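Example record

One chain of 184 residues, shown exactly as stored in the release files.
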Amino acid sequence: MVEQIIFILVSAFTLSMAVVVVTKRNLFHAALALMATFLGVAGLYAMLDAGFLAAAQLLVYIGAISILVIFAIMMTRRLMQTDEPAFNSQAGFALVTAVLSFGILFWVFFMFRDFWPVVPNAAVPLASRTQIPQEMIQDSVAMMGRAFVDPAGYVLPFEIASILLLAALVGAIIVAWPKAEDKA
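Predicted structure tokens for this chain:
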């Protein structure tokens, strides 16, 4: 019961910080709220016994991506001002995209519901937990690490992702680079 209450509190914290991210007018404050959202997601991973994902969430999203976003915001001086509107004219497009995304997620869950062996608990309905064999968990992080660098594994998608991140970093620097009229 205590675990459920903590899960609900962490979920509420994560969702409230996500709302702050999209409604805050100051981008720096929104980026800080994004870090708190990532922290909440890491907490959810930890509560779901996904320790590797929680650690990766902390290191990659909070330690790297959020810091990169904050540096990009700080490098663009005009975005630090609060006179930018909090909402834009794309609310209808965002609503359609959100409904479509939810529909796709619901469809995927419905199609693969047999592969998700959740065993309901009659005493505490929300406390159901998938039982994972110990031999599946053992050495899973080391096996994943080897698969990332194995030519027969995921080395190509891993390298493509790293090139995309490098391109995004270079693009952010080019966008944030002050123009000649900004220097005057």
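Notes: The chain has eight helices and no strands.
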